[in-house]
Every structure is written in C-alpha cells, then in structure tokens.
C-alpha cells in the first residue's frame, strides 16, 4: 500500500481511505532495476545547473479515476529544480501536442515554486522542515502553481531516501543569499551565448528616452518632464534611475526626503488629466520635523494645484483600502481549495464549495480592487480630475491600482507589447518588491503577499468579460503567473532596479569578468516553441473599434463547480474612498489646507460611481476606448484555468475556454484557406498548402481536435474522469433529510448548473 492522501494542508479533515494497493513485492522492484535503467529518461540540465542529490526506485503516484497508480523512476534535486524521471511515462500520440514549456517540464518543480512539503508517517501527514529524526514513507509537495506531487519512498534505499528528502527540504526551505540564486549561475554559465532579447516593442523603462517616449505617447509632455536626478541612484535606491514628475517641480525637491512626498507621474489620459503616485513621508512624533514635513508638502501641493494641473484628488491606499495582511490571509485560504491530494478529497469538499469560497474572501478582494480602479477612472474620465495615489512606499497597492486603471482606460495596455510595457513601468521600474513578495529568498513568510498575482487575477476578470478587447489570452496570463517562479528570468527576482544593477557584479561568481546578460521573461521563445506561442495570441482581438452588441454578453462556461458565488448582497465596503476627517493628521495635511474642499466631496462617491458604472454598461462597448468590468456578485469569478487546471475531476470534456479557442482557430484557418482558394489572398503563408482540405471541426495545425480537449487544455489533454456519486457519500450523515437539503442548497453544487 503506497499510503493514503490526506487533506490539502488544511488540517483537521478526515483522511480518506487508501485508494491504491501495490501487489508488487519490493524484491521484484529491485530485481528489475537493471532492466529499467536502460529505459530511464535522461536528466536535462540547463547551463550552470548542478545535480545535488538523487534517489532511485521512487514511485510517483498518479491519480486515475478513483484509484492511483505508481510510476517507477528516479527523483532528483538540482540547484534549479526537483525532477522526476519516469521509467515508463506514457508517450503522447503524435497528433496530441501539449503546451510544453522548454524550461520546466511536466514533472519538474523549480525550487522557488515549492510551497509546502509534507511527509506521511504511518499514514499521518505532517509538515516537513529543518532536520528530521525520522524520514517519511511518502513525500507530498504542494507547489505555488497549485500542482500537487506524491512520491512514495517505501521501496527506495534508506540512505538515498534520507539524502533526497533532506536535500529537497534544505534547498527549498532554507534562507538564501541573493547571489546564490540560480539566476546568476545560469547567466554566468551562458555568458558567451548571445543574450535573448525581449519581445519587439516592449518598453523596458530603463532609459530616459523610454520615459520621454511614454510621455509623448500619452501626450503628457506638456505638463510633465522626465528627470535624471536619481541617475546612479544617488538620491534614492527605491526609485528608478529615471522617472517623471510635474514640470514646475524643482528637482531638488526630489532629493530632500529621498523621494518621499514627491508626486511621480504614472500615466496621462487623453483629456489632459493624469494619474500620479506618491510615497508618504515617514510618520514623526517630533513637532519640529512634522512642521518641516507640512511646509514641504504644502509647497508640493501649490506646484501641482496651480494651472495647468487644476484639481487633484487624493487616494490614500494605506488607510482607505486593502491591507497586505488582508491579501495574504485571503489567498492562503483560497489556494487550499485547489491543493487537492486525491479524488476523494475533491468530492468531500465539493458539498461546501460555496461556503469555503466565500470564507476565503479572495473574490471579494478582487471586487474591491476593480471597484477602486473604476472610482479612479471616473475621476479621470468624468470629472477631469487628476488623481494622486498615496501609499507608504508606493510599491504595492499603488502598482496594482494604477496598472488596473491603465488597462481599463488605455487600449495600448490591452495589447501584448503594451501590457508587457505596463508591467515594466509600474511594477519592475516602479520598485515592486518581487523578491520579498514572492519570498524567493525564504527569509520572511510575513513579507510574502501575492500582490502581482492579484493584479493578474483582476486583469483576467476583464479578459473573460471582454475577450475582443485584449490581444492576449488567459493562457498568456496563466503562464505569466507561472513565470514568477522560474529563476532564469530577472524580471520577477529583484526588489528594485537598483538591486538588480548592484547585483550584476561578479564577485563570488568565480567566472570571467564579462558582463552578465540576465534574461527577461518577455522573450517567450525561451519557454515555448512558435506553435505553442499561438495560444498566447487572442484570435478574436478587435484591432479596430467595432460596436457589436452581440458581444456584450459574457460567455459562461459549463463546469462541475460554479466558479462564482451566488448573487447575494455583497459586503459593503466603508465609504472611505477619499480623505475623511478621521484620517491621520499628517496625511491629511498632504495637500495643505485646501484638502477640506475634497473631504465633503467624498460623500458623493457612491452615487457618482453607480451613475458612471451604469451609464457605461448601458452602452455598446468600444473595445478601443474605456473598458469597465462587471463587479456584481456572480460576475467576479474563479480563474478556472489557473486554479483548476491540475484537477482532473474539475475538467469539462470537450469544452471549456481552451476547446472553444481551438475550434475558433480551426474555423479561422479554414476561412483563410478558402480565401486563398478563391483568390482573395493569393499570398500563401509559409508551409500552408492551398490544396490541403480542412476537415470540418478540426483544430489549427499542431493542435488536437476540440473533441479530444477538455477545459484543462492547454495544460493537459482529456483525462478520464473519476467515478463520482450524485452526492458525495461522505456527506450523507451531515445532509439529513430532503427538507434539510432544500434549506442548504447554497452549499450544494449542481453539476449541471453554470
């Protein structure tokens, strides 16, 4: 018996009975070691990657329906990943090409992607950390991309089992030094190779010309200027070397408090209004220091309040919005819904899906972020008012809200190049602490907050509701979220541009003193072949403005679990969208005495929001103009592709967004070929034969037929569903009679309901 799976890290849940029995004797396994050695898959190492430890005769437990089977192979740990090399992994059919990542394989886990490690001791699951006195018979790894791996070590030699378990725990849980990240080993080993370049037209915002170009694109160069006062990071290590400030602002104001209290430009709307951000001045108790701060802020206010800036609206995100602990707690609960150890656990939790989903508050946090961005958009669009976002360091919630506003209001940010440039500008150059927020160095769990993942989830809500407005797909967003944990790209592995530049030195790297070339995640050819990259491009993207009322209604996916909460009155958030009288006295003086003009105005926020929101949704959308999401109850949904893609029980055979996209691509390919045959497009694409017949219902070249896909595509093909009861059998006693069932319908998921 391989050992039983237990609750997905939640603790306290009743462990299901073992679902797999091995009839193979240990001596039979060791007898066949020589035979299987010839069939072992070769371990492919990246440049600079080193093998640390390995163990043979490890069984990877694979869920197949209501049972498990064991795949025998070798488990290895390198300084880049944990990998399982199976002896008899089934080969895919030639026409079923999966969405393969060239860097991280199906059975690979990068060390930074490991979330929790559990061991099974006498069929009891315990968290593993530090030095172990006793080693488990089964290893369970929960990943940050929500994969769950089960490895049985019962037939592994004792010394090998100890080495592999200790090695995995040490290299995934122990604190690290920045320069010991694999990122630098890879860059140093590949220093003679030609560095990969980012995707064409992606602006990196690491030069003064990049910022000036963005000012010109948004027509903000009349009121704002790009400055180089922080060149060489001589003023502030937190800020980028170049950024944009109001044109009349003296450059010495930037250096006075190391960039604090200075309005920094984010983006300009076509009506001349701008979105700004500011890191708040540190709170002081000394009255003399407070007075100095007040005088400085009052001077800044006079600069940005006089013509041509007119009115400025201030959003204090540190006190009037979400807190980072709120986000951390919500996601910690939310992710447990998808870290499923086995099929029995899936169906046991299915009956309380709604209550668990609601108690996590993750969807409510997404809704609040979208509503905040709509509030800011209303100020810019309707009231023609500049908006100033204020946060302690302006590197977390400021990045989130400003980016969402730009996605909603700037169609350029809904193209692939524009979106990538937006991430570079607001998150990378903006100083979001990716190293701390992703806990790449394993130095503080308290600092680990998925702010960027929250942003991607918010963008996905927009992509789902308005597909023709985006040049990229949900698959693009999903693989971008996965790239957070691949340490060969520098994009998401530093806290600031200054940290990146100072880390480029070669001390302690023991390599020739040639310049290091760190890859950027935007060169998708590093991870995917051209054929796979087509799944990142939205075939329904509207390149020119079109008013099509038929696309107003969102497409609802059939799914075993309803992906949104029932339509109930959402939690009312406090009316603290803008400054209130109870706001901290230092922050309240941020814009001087004239802030009192804005305090009374905040009472009108709810009415203005509703009028603006309803007015936009009553019109046909302009996909190259302002774009607002629906935020009512069921409209904010679970990002199914990212969170459910590894759970076979959650698949929709022959359906889902992936199968739909494949069918659409097939139709478009058929139309293209017909146009060529009719002479409308005489130029043939490379490799396309004009005489080739396209079978009806076939997908595009390189992709399987939609009938062979499921909602797990492109991350998995159609899998055999597990046998499932009409109602979870483990819940019969708790359900009671028919009358009780009727009263608890909000906890029961109707498998046929959308």
Blueprint (SSEs and pairs):
Layout: H1 26-31, H2 33-37, E1 51-64, E2 67-78, E3 81-86, E4 108-110, E5 114-121, E6 124-127, E7 138-143, E8 148-152, H3 158-173, H4 182-189, H5 208-217, E9 224-227, E10 243-246, H6 252-256, E11 264-268, E12 274-279, H7 287-305, E13 312-316, H8 324-335, H9 343-350, H10 353-360, H11 362-381, E14 386-391, H12 397-409, H13 416-428, H14 434-437, H15 451-465, H16 474-482, H17 497-502, H18 530-533, H19 585-588, H20 596-599, H21 605-617, H22 640-644, H23 656-677, H24 732-735, H25 738-743
Parallel strand pairs: 12-14, 13-14
Antiparallel strand pairs: 1-2, 1-8, 2-3, 3-4, 5-6, 5-7, 7-8, 9-10, 11-12
Helix pairs in contact: 8-10, 11-12, 11-15, 12-13, 12-15, 15-16
Protein name: Myotubularin-related protein 12
Pfam family, one: Myotub-related
Domain Myotubularin phosphatase: 205-643
Descriptive report:
- It is found in: Cytoplasm, Myofibril, Sarcomere; Sarcoplasmic reticulum.
- Belongs to the protein-tyrosine phosphatase family. Non-receptor class myotubularin subfamily.
- The protein is an alpha+beta fold and 754 residues long.
- The chain contains 25 helices and 14 strands.
- The strands form three sheets. An eight-stranded antiparallel β-sheet has the order 4-3-2-1-8-7-5-6. Strands 11-12-14-13 form a four-stranded mixed β-sheet, with helices on one face. It has a two-stranded antiparallel ribbon with strand order 9-10.
- A hairpin with a 4-residue loop joins β7 and β8.
- α11 crosses α15, α12 packs antiparallel against α13 and α15 packs antiparallel against α16.
- It is globular, with a radius of gyration of 27 Å.
- 44% of the residues are buried.
């Amino acid at each position: 018996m391989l050992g039983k799976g237990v609750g997905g890290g939640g603790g306290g849940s009743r462990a299901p009975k073992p679902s797999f029995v091995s009839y193979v004797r240990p001596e039979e396994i060791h007898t066949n070691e020589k035979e299987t050695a010839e069939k072992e898959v070769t371990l492919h190492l990246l440049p600079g990657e080193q093998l640390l430890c390995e163990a043979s005769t490890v069984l990877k437990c694979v869920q197949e329906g209501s049972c498990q089977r064991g795949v025998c192979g070798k488990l290895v740990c390198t300084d880049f990943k944990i990998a399982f090399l199976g002896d008899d992994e089934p080969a895919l059919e030639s026409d079923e090409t999966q969405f393969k990542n060239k860097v991280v394989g199906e059975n690979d886990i990068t060390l930074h992607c490991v979330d929790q490690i559990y061991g099974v001791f006498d069929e009891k699951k315990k968290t593993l950390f530090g030095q172990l006195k006793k080693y488990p018979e089964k290893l369970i790894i929960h990943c940050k991309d929500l994969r769950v791996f089960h490895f049985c070590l019962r037939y592994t030699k004792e010394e090998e089992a100890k080495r592999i378990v200790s090695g995995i725990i040490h290299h995934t849980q122990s604190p690290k030094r920045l320069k010991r990240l694999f990122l630098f080993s890879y860059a140093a080993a590949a220093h003679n190779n030609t560095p990969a370049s980012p995707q064409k037209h992606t602006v990196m915002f690491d030069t003064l010309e990049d910022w000036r170009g963005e000012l010109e694109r948004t027509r903000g160069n009349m009121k704002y200027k790009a400055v180089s006062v922080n060149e060489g990071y001589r003023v502030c290590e937190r800020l980028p070397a170049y950024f944009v400030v109001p044109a009349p602002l003296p450059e010495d104001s930037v250096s006075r408090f190391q960039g604090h209290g200075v309005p920094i430009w984010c983006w300009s709307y076509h009506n001349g209004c701008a979105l700004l951000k500011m890191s708040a001045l540190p709170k002081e108790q000394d009255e003399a220091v407070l007075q100095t701060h007040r005088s400085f802020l009052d001077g800044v206010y006079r600069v940005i309040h006089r013509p041509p800036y007119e009115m400025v609206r201030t959003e204090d995100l540190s006190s009037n919005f979400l807190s980072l602990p709120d986000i951390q707690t919500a996601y910690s609960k939310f992710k447990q819904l998808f870290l499923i150890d086995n099929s029995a656990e899936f169906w046991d939790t299915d009956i309380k899906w709604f209550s668990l989903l609601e108690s996590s508050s993750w969807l409510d946090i997404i809704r609040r972020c979208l509503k905040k961005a709509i509030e800011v958009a209303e100020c810019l669009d309707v009231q023609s008012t500049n908006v100033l976002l204020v946060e302690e360091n302006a590197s977390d919630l400021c990045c989130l809200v400003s980016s969402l506003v730009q996605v909603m209001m700037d169609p350029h940010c809904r193209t692939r190049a524009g979106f990538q440039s937006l991430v570079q500008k607001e998150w990378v150059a903006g100083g979001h602490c990716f190293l701390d927020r992703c806990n790449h160095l394993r130095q503080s769990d308290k600092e680990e907050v998925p702010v960027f993942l929250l942003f991607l989830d918010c963008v996905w809500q927009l992509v789902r509701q308005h597909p023709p407005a985006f040049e990229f797909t949900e698959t693009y967003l999903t693989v971008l979220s996965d790239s957070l944990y691949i340490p060969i790209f520098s994009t998401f592995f530093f806290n600031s541009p200054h940290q990146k530049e100072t880390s480029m030195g070669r001390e302690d790297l023991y390599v020739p003193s040639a310049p290091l070339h760190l890859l950027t995640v935007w060169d998708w050819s590093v991870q995917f072949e051209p054929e796979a990259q087509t799944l990142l491009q939205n075939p329904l993207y509207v390149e020119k403005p079109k008013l099509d009322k038929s696309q107003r209604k969102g497409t609802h996916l059939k799914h075993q679990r309803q992906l949104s909460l029932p339509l109930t009155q959402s939690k009312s958030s406090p009316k603290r969208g803008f400054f209130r009288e109870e706001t901290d006295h230092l922050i309240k003086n941020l814009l001087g005495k004239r802030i009192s003009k804005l305090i009374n105005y905040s009472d009108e926020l709810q009415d203005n929001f509703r009028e603006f929101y309803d007015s936009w949704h009553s019109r046909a959308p302009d996909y190259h103009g302002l774009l607002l999401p629906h935020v009512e109850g069921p409209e904010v949904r679970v990002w199914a592709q990212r969170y459910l893609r590894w759970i076979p029980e959650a698949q929709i055979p022959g359906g889902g967004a992936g199968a739909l996209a494949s069918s659409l691509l097939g139709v478009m390919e058929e139309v293209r070929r017909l146009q060529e045959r009719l002479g409308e497009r005489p130029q043939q694409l490379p490799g396309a034969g004009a005489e080739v017949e396209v079978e009806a219902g076939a997908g595009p070249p390189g992709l399987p037929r939609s009938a062979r896909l499921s909602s797990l595509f492109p991350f998995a093909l159609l899998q055999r569903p597990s046998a499932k009861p009409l109602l979870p059998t483990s819940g019969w006693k708790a359900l009671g009679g028919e009358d009780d069932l009727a009263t608890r319908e909000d906890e029961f998921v109707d498998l046929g309901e959308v």
